[in-house]
Amino acid sequence: MRFLLVEDNTDLAQSVSARLKLDGHAVDWAADLHSANGCLAGASYDLILLDIALPDGDGRDFLSKHRAMKRDTPVIVMTARNAVSDRVDVLDRGADDYVTKPFDFSELEARCRAVLRRRGGSARNVVSYGGLEFDALAARIEVAGEVRELRNRELRLLEILLSNPRAIYSKAQLCDRLFSYSEDPSENAIEVYVGRLRKKLEGCHARIETVRGVGYRITDQ
To answer: Are residues 108 and 134 in the same domain?
Structure first.
């Protein structure tokens, strides 16, 4: 998944980015609202992590404008303000969740997973599809009782495909979802990850199909 982190504290931003990248997520960092708007103009994101007190404005106003433009990207607000009125305010403005600073990274990760699950219409980390049991939290799949471990990119690729089964994703779209601006992958990298994932899906009915000239989709055969 690709995240946008809007945070002006360099140390915190680097720590959050590093932790999320360990989970296989692509993270773009914006230190101010101007940079955040530039990122949103050039890429699609699965989740935005938003600070409130930023050098060039209030993150709450950014959130309100984000929702007024009919953008449905989930937003988790990161704030040092812990009054009930502050929490109610950001939720009413359209935040999907909030986390109070200082926070434990494991809590932030759990909140990210919960928000992404809700967006995908699921209340559980485990997804069943085509004889496949996919546990995103444990980074593994189970096929006919056999547990197979997934590497980070394989995990996120399968997560994307299963978020909307039978939808076709082009190589460019998958690159956009799997890699950040700081990375420079070729579309051949997608072929590599698709090939690896196909091998791990052997033995179940779930298949990653190549739609010639268009891209890839997962189907239940």
So the answer is: no
